[in-house]
TrEMBL record:
Record domain AB hydrolase-1: where: 43-356
Name of the protein in question: Homoserine O-succinyltransferase
SUPFAM superfamilies: alpha/beta-Hydrolases
Gene: metXS
The entry's keywords: Acyltransferase, Amino-acid biosynthesis, Cytoplasm, Methionine biosynthesis, Transferase
Organism: Ramlibacter rhizophilus
Active site: residue positions: 149, 318, 351
Subcellular localization, as worded in the UniProt entry: Cytoplasm
Gene Ontology annotations of biological process type: homoserine metabolic process; methionine biosynthetic process
Record-stated family: Belongs to the AB hydrolase superfamily. MetX family.
Catalytic class of the enzyme: transferase
Free-text function comment from the UniProt entry: Transfers a succinyl group from succinyl-CoA to L-homoserine, forming succinyl-L-homoserine.
InterPro entries in the record: AB_hydrolase_1, AB_hydrolase_fold, HAT_MetX-like
Amino acid sequence: MTLIAQPQSMHFAEPLALRSGARLADYHLAYETYGTLNAERSNAVLVCHALNASHHVAGVYEGQERSEGWWDNMIGPGKPVDTDRFFVIGVNNLGSCFGSTGPMHTNPATGRPWGADFPVVTVEDWVDAQARLVSALGVDTLAAVMGGSLGGMQALSWTLQYPRRVRHAAVIASAPNLNAENIAFNEVARRAIVTDPDFHGGHFYGHGVLPRRGLRIARMIGHITYLSDDVMNAKFGRELRSAVGSDYRYSTQEVEFQIESYLRHQGDKFSEYFDANTYLLITRALDYFDPARLTGGNLTRALAAAAARFLIVSFSTDWRFSPARSREIVKALLENRREVSYAEIDAPHGHDAFLLDDPRYLSLVRAWFDRIASEPAA
């Protein structure tokens, strides 16, 4: 059965107080829902998205080819998160470029696009905005909140900001904060964007240009970190493009290796659909996330507020969000005597594994959600 997705938008007139001290008024959130909310309003699952994803989590848009949701292998009728049993909500975060209010939209104070003037947003701000939307949909308590990577950080933050509104949380391929190496990768990507001559201090919309060169480089940098060394070698190795032949061209400018061609292709695609200011905002939100910041770096004390039951999943070859980072979360939760299921999947795909069709991973999530579905509503 094909799930047909219907994009929706919800307007909020009440200002949202942000962690930066700014207040965002008169904003809207793009979202999609799948399945049916039951009479008890107890079967809602919120899915939080990662850096370049959106509210289009599952299904397809009618009449549009290649429009599958970014987690369509995970969510839908008969899938691990079964929309025949659960009411699934996908929300596009503030500051994104896929429908929710962001830098591309008009700043009511100036009548021009926000651009670089859009306020800094954090993971905690996103969770506050999501909580408002969930409430507006008539849901007081979520059966589960789940996400991978940056989405996993949001799921974790939900359990701390709204501990009584979340029964279960799935934190997948994520971390309690970014290490210095990850922050460094994000900064190099940001510098590629802001030093693009077409960036114009973030106000490029009025100049009729896009900082595509910077976005291409940012995406190429990011994509390298999403794949494992094994996958890169297996997929590309040192293969030359067929046009090169058996001899090198010894050129510093031309694309000769298959991996070069692949990265440039990914960069070109990304630069056509993603917003540069959004990239800066979201990577900075990644950098800022650190629930232990207010407890002197003590993650156990930081997670003491959580009351949910947890599923924590990591992947053996994910070097950007390594299993060791997931085990930090598990340890802190166990020290707080919280119920935690932990799985470390031996998968070759690197960080991208949380999006792929690994049977063990999908079966694990299915079994976890089967248990949730069989529990009586609190």
